[in-house]
Amino acid sequence: MMNSMKLYIKGGCPWCVMAETWLDQRGVDYEAIEVLSDATAFAEMKKISGQSRAPVLVTAEGRILSDFGPEELPGFLGV
């Protein structure tokens, strides 16, 4: 359906779970990156988004959606 994306998440984050559920239900290809257990990934997420909040979604084209709820995904992804 879409190009692979990166989804930066934090364990226990309800918005992260909702984002993953939304993407999974629509068959969207993405890589989930858990940042609380990986300091390098956490630093990468902060550099990309300018903040420490999750989730952060990065498209293959480099578009970034930070600290979002699932209701923002259709407009961002154009679906």
Explain the layout of strands and helices:
Blueprint lengths: L4 E5 L4 H12 L4 E5 L4 H11 L6 E3 L5 E3 L6 H5 L2
Parallel strand pairs: 1-2
Antiparallel strand pairs: 1-3, 3-4
Key descriptive features of the protein:
79 residues; alpha+beta; Glutaredoxin
Model description:
It is a single chain. With 79 residues, the chain is an alpha+beta fold. It has a single domain, classed as Glutaredoxin (3-Layer(aba) Sandwich). It is 35% helix and 20% strand. The chain contains three helices and four strands; from the N terminus they run E-H-E-H-E-E-H. A four-stranded mixed sheet has the order 2-1-3-4, with helices on both faces. The mean pLDDT is 93.
Question: TL;DR?
Answer:
This protein is of the alpha+beta class and 79 residues long.
Beta strand %: 15-25%
- The Cα radius of gyration reads 11 Å
Structural class: alpha+beta
The side-by-side strand order for the widest beta sheet comes to 2-1-3-4
CATH architecture, by name, is 3-Layer(aba) Sandwich
**Number of β-strand runs:** 4
Stated plainly, the CATH topology is called Glutaredoxin
The count of helical stretches stands at 3
Approximate shape: globular
As for the number of domains, it is: 1
Element string (H = helix, E = strand):
EHEHEEH
Low-confidence stretches: none
Mind telling me the CATH class? Alpha Beta
The major pleated sheet works out as: 4 strands, mixed
Q: Determine the N-to-C terminus distance.
A: 10 Å
What is the average of the pLDDT values? 93
